[in-house]
Structure formats: structure tokens, C-alpha cells
Amino acid sequence: MLKRRFCFTLLILCFFGLTNSIQAQRDEAPETIRVLSGDGRSIQAAIDAVANGGKVILGPGVFRVDEPLFVRGKRILIEGAGCDWFPRGRSGNTRTTHLAGRRVERVVPFEEAVGLINFDNDAGGTLRGMKCTGFDACLRGYSEAPEAPGPPLSVEEVCMGQNGRGIVWSAPSSLFAKSVIIRDALWNGVSIGFPTLLGVTPSDNTQVELSGFSVLDPGHACMAFKNTIASVSDTTLTNCGPGGGIVAENSLVQIQSTTILPMFSGPGITVKKGGYLIDDVFVSGASGGGILFLSSPLNAQVSQSFIGGTGFLNGALGDGITVFGGGSVYVTSSQLVFNKRAGITAFGSFVSLQDTDLICNGFDLDAEPLNGTPGQFQNLGGNSCGCSNFPGECTAQSSGLTAPSLITDPL
Fold first, then answer.
1. Radius of gyration (Cα) for the chain, nearest Å?
2. How many helices, marked H, and strands, marked E, lie in the chain?
3. In the Cβ-directed half-sphere of 27, how many Cα atoms lie within 13 Å?
4. How far is Cα 380 from Cα 340, in angstroms, rounded to an integer?
5. What is the pLDDT along the chain (411 residues), one digit of tens a residue?
6. How far is 43 from 57, CA to CA, in rounded Å?
């Protein structure tokens, strides 16, 4: 009798031990989940199930995404097989993971945009190796309310096409993106920042580093920033729309080693308020001007840059560099060549010039008063002006030029 009771007790203990072991295995989220086929629901299920710090690996092929994907409260890697828009070998192969979202017919306001892939402020990780089409944006980072910065997100070798905007980022978290191709966005290729200051200064907001971008044929600007800190490097912007190549407001932006090619309806770079460092930039064929500084930049510098072949926009502008509304800009070691109007125009602003060549522009330097404040130039030496084999001194004149209009909300 005692033997039977002992065996029965042992059987019960083994049963509950096995049950607890199975439950523990179920409660432990997997480190890696592979989604080799399926649709957006399969991907969302994998995102929800994978462990914090885990990986979601997507196979090559087309995944139809009818509902937006959300990553909430965890840091994960989402990696596809690659994108065939990159040259062979850059991604290691020409296989493509294509997330095909619903087609967009109109541009929604920045605050209303919903991405195909959405990261909340408590989510981060890496997004790599895929093509993303459709929705208001390919990638969206967001926060329901101003909060402390969350984990950063890295984006690598991702192609974005026919979205409302390629990237929409308003989370107070860092974004590090490199080797990204954006084509045919309905509005801006990239829109980053806060629609309002939310009671904080730009230095308290998100930090963004964009490197190795190629943005082609957006409906408005190639890149737009507002109330944020950002850097752009090793980037090519082509055939940008009326918003121009890069437009920024109330931000701290560094632009380096960037090429902005012909734009028939907008300027190369337009910045309003904030601080800007522009170095090793090539701007050619921009309508309405090469670089426009508007409304008292805190601090601005243009160095080792080429700005040429600018044209008129609606019969006005067309300067290589325009400085408007106060502030100070330092231009050094640059070339301003064959610009339709002036090489540099200062409207009630102060421009320092050093080791810079102004060649065959409509005229070299123009200083215009604004609200009783004169435009001024400071020659720091090493400059040359004119359109002959014997360049002369650089002398400012006042020709009553038309001032630029202020930009609307860039996002």
C-alpha cells in the first residue's frame, strides 16, 4: 500500500514538474524568429513574439503589408535579404525582401503620417536589408508625448519608394541611417523633427545622422528638418521638388560631402534660424539660388564648397548664396561660379569672405539694406572676383535686388 502511494505521489510530482517546464519554455521569448514567407501579419506576429534584443529575419520575396507594423517597447533587429536597387555586391547579393504596402494617393500632414514600419519612443534596434513601398512613410519614429530619449535606431541598406515620405521621425530618440535610397516620395524624401518646440530647445530633441543617402525625384524637398540636431554626409540629392535639396528651420545641422544636382523648381539649401555648418558641398543648377540663409542664423559657415549655375525662380533670386534678415555667415575656400544673379547677396546681414573665388556671376557681391540695417561684407583676404583671365578685387554694390520670401513649414 505504501509502495502504491509512493509511486502515485512520484507520478504527480513528475507531471507538475513537466507542466511547469513546458510553461517556462512557452514564457521564454525566442531570440531569433525567421519569416520566410507570408504577409504583414506574419511579420507583426514575429515582432510581437521575439525577445527584447532578438532578431526577426525575413526571407527574400514579396510580403504584402495591408496594416502598419509596430515595434513597441523593445530593441530588435529586423533584417531582410537585401534590395536590388543597390549595385551588385554592395548588399552582398541582388536578392530582395520587398515589403509592399498599400498605395498612397495624397500627402497627409506630418503629424498624421503612419509608416509601414513604426517604432515608438521605447523601441529601437536595427532595420536592415529590404525594400519598402507604400503608406504615408516607409519608416516612422514617434512619441505620444515629449519624453526622455529612448533607445536609438539604426537603418542600413534600405530602399524606400512611392511612399508619402520616405522617413518621418518625431521621436526624441537618435536615428542613425546609412546607405538608404529614397525614390519618388509624394512629399519630402526625409522629414525629421518636431512640428512644435514642445517647450524644449533644439539641443534637447533628437539627434540624427544620415550618411550615404540617395534621394531622387521627391514631390517637395529631398530632406527637411525642424527643431532638431542633424548631420548629413556623403549624400546625393537629385531632381528635388519645389522645397529644394535640404530645408531646415530652427535646427543645428551639419552638411558635409553632399552633392545637390539640378533642381528646376527650388533652391539647393534653405535654412532658417539655428546654426549651420556646410562643408564640401556641390550645388549645381538650382533654381532660386544655391544656399539661402533666412532670419538671423545663430551661426553659419560655408567652406570648401562649389555653388554654380543657379537660375531665376519666378523671375527672382538666383544668387549663389543669399543671406537675409540679420545674422552672420562666414564663407571660406569656396567657389561661386556662373550664378544667374549675384555670387553672394546680403540683405541686412553680415558676411565674412576669405579665400573664395567668385567667377562670372551676374555680379559678384550685393549688399542691400533691410529694415534700416545695411548689408555688409568683410574681406578677410585671398578672394578673387570677375570674369576674365585677370580677376580683380571683390567690391560690393547695391542693385535693389528682390529679397527672398520666408519658407513655410518644411515638414
1. 27
2. 2, 31
3. 6
4. 25
5. 434 443 434 333 333 342 332 232 334 678 999 999 999 999 999 999 999 999 999 999 999 999 999 999 999 999 999 998 987 544 455 689 999 999 999 999 999 999 999 999 889 999 999 999 999 999 999 887 656 778 899 999 999 999 999 999 998 889 999 999 999 999 999 999 876 544 434 445 568 999 999 999 999 999 999 988 899 999 999 999 999 999 999 888 999 999 999 766 789 999 988 889 999 999 998 888 899 998 866 779 999 999 999 987 665 678 999 999 888 999 999 999 999 999 999 999 999 999 999 999 998 999 999 888 999 999 999 999 998 776 788 999 998 887 777 667 788
6. 9
CB 243 within 8 A of CB 410: yes
Taking the C-alpha atoms of residue 328 and residue 100, their distance in angstroms, rounded to an integer, is 47
pTM, two decimals, is 0.89
CA-to-CA separations, 146 to 120, 201, 305, in angstroms, rounded: 12, 12, 37
Interior angle at CA 397, CA 395 and CA 398, nearest 5: 165
Report the residue count for the chain.
Answer: 411
The CATH-assigned architecture of domain 60-261 is 3 Solenoid (2.160)
Q: Which residue has the cell 555653388?
A: 307
Query: Would you state the cell numbers that stand for residue 251, as one nine-digit string?
Result: 535646427
Grid coordinates representing 346? 546680403
